[in-house]
Amino acid sequence: MKYGIVIFPSKPVQDEINSYRKRYDPHYAMIPPHLTLKEAFEVDDAKITELITELKHIANETEPFDLAVNKVSTFAPVTNTIYLKVEPIQQLYDLAEKMQSGKFPANQMYSYVPHITIAQKLSQDEYSDVYGSLSMKDTRLEDQIDRFHLVYQLDNGIWTVYESFVFGKEYV
Amino acid sequence: MKYGIVIFPSKPVQDEINSYRKRYDPHYAMIPPHLTLKEAFEVDDAKITELITELKHIANETEPFDLAVNKVSTFAPVTNTIYLKVEPIQQLYDLAEKMQSGKFPANQMYSYVPHITIAQKLSQDEYSDVYGSLSMKDTRLEDQIDRFHLVYQLDNGIWTVYESFVFGKEYV
């Protein structure tokens, strides 16, 4: 089964991010606004049980932290994805790193860039227009994060949550 | 904020149920296939914190159980919703009952009927056609359930998972 690990911001922040995604992100209906900690990976049932125990340990070792967005950025020219750049804080890198080592499959192809996608799969012309107009907007957001979620993908492409991991609150 | 409490069946069962929902359920993209334990209710942040502790206790008191679907049924003439009738087992009624009493707001308007919706908001003609054809299909499904999820609704109508509650595994 195909799994991923994400952080969902709080509802007010998700609602604001959706106002952009609704127009520019074809994955809008596939998953709520999210910050990816670990990109999609394939594992079987036995392995995921093992990884869930690891994820509980990781959650218990993590303190709640503040997340801040100050500007829009882009992965162009690699892809023309436009995203909210999440201020680089150590906790996010630590989380992503722990999910690439030990019992976890290493599946990170590029350096980890904490971000929340708001536009993707645009044509080149659309991309230029949208990036130009989003860059001029005030996209500052702040949030408190105290959990992450293990999600899996259904055949129709939509992601379902399997389990939540609340920092300092997991029973192992 | 508006919350609900649901059970998501396993991926193979969700995929099969989605094959019906895709055609007949306008809520298809709003939430994955689910069995509702407690319908949408409004509570503030302080109250939900209190209810989460209750939900952990409830999860810890519950043993994993088997869920079976044997036929299609309908809420007509109250609404023309068509659903997979979940075999009535005590655990489901106990869960639903606990989420209506104690600290929980009582918001259950009808007797609890364990079901998974596959079609709704159809015109009367569509309803008759769809119910006729679904009634003749073999819709038997079996699954093992070991958790439920607290979900909340975004402004765009899509539901996000806030927290999972795994039977016998919650730290209170």
From TrEMBL, chains A, B:
<dbReference type="InterPro" id="IPR050580">
    <property type="entry name" value="2H_phosphoesterase_YjcG-like"/>
</dbReference>
<feature type="active site" description="Proton acceptor">
    <location>
        <position position="115"/>
    </location>
</feature>
<dbReference type="Pfam" id="PF13563">
    <property type="entry name" value="2_5_RNA_ligase2"/>
</dbReference>
<feature type="short sequence motif" description="HXTX 2">
    <location>
        <begin position="115"/>
        <end position="118"/>
    </location>
</feature>
<feature type="active site" description="Proton donor">
    <location>
        <position position="34"/>
    </location>
</feature>
<keyword id="KW-0378">Hydrolase</keyword>
<dbReference type="InterPro" id="IPR022932">
    <property type="entry name" value="YjcG"/>
</dbReference>
<dbReference type="InterPro" id="IPR009097">
    <property type="entry name" value="Cyclic_Pdiesterase"/>
</dbReference>
<protein>
    <recommendedName>
        <fullName>Putative phosphoesterase ACFQ4A_00450</fullName>
        <ecNumber>3.1.-.-</ecNumber>
    </recommendedName>
</protein>
<comment type="similarity">
    <text>Belongs to the 2H phosphoesterase superfamily. YjcG family.</text>
</comment>
<feature type="short sequence motif" description="HXTX 1">
    <location>
        <begin position="34"/>
        <end position="37"/>
    </location>
</feature>
